[in-house]
Amino acid sequence: MTSSLFSHAPDPEPQRGAASVADIEESCVVPRETDEAFRGFHEYLHLWWPAEFSTYGEGMHPEFESGSLTETSLDEETALWATVREIRPDELLAMDWFLGHSPTVSTSVELRFEPQENHTRVTVQHSGFGRIPDGLEVRDRLAGQWRNVLQRYARFMGAR
């Protein structure tokens, strides 16, 4: 029993949750209708994805297959990049993105394809960095990579 009628409960311990790390958001505009823009990313990734942003480097082959995004080396080794959470052709591709290609550490990547007259705005949003160790460092490194990936994709799709 407390000695004072107006006593307060002790202050709760501060909660230790995910650190706040900003999302990455990059976009580009390609001179294609949304169906072509989507196919260019989803079906022809192996033709334009930069080898420097891969596990195996030159000669690698990234592809979407059976609900996953994988990379295969010249020696037929495979690395898992992501699993697809949701796909709405010509509109959305949402994935759990594995850092270090381990299915135990993931972030979230969403690609949106939005019509703009005779063009399509493609936006990538990469989030969830607060859930991982060194999230801010990883976010800063990947921000530049996503910018370069979208530039390469835009050129492949005919943007100037």
Output the keywords.
globular, seven-stranded antiparallel β-sheet, ASHA1/2-like_C, Alpha-D-Glucose-1,6-Bisphosphate, Chain A, domain 4, SRPBCC domain-containing protein, 160 residues, 3 helices, single chain, alpha+beta
Describe, in short, the structure shown.
This protein is α+β, with helices and mostly antiparallel strands. It has three helices and seven strands, in the order E-H-H-E-E-E-E-E-E-H.
What does the model show?
There is one protein chain. Strands 1-7-6-5-4-3-2 form a 7-stranded antiparallel sheet, with helices on one face. The protein starts with 23 loop residues before the first strand and ends with a helix. The protein has a domain at 24-43 and 85-156: START domain (Alpha-D-Glucose-1,6-Bisphosphate, Chain A, domain 4, 2-Layer Sandwich), CATH 3.30.530. The chain is an alpha+beta fold. The chain is built from 3 helices and 7 strands; from the N terminus they run E-H-H-E-E-E-E-E-E-H.
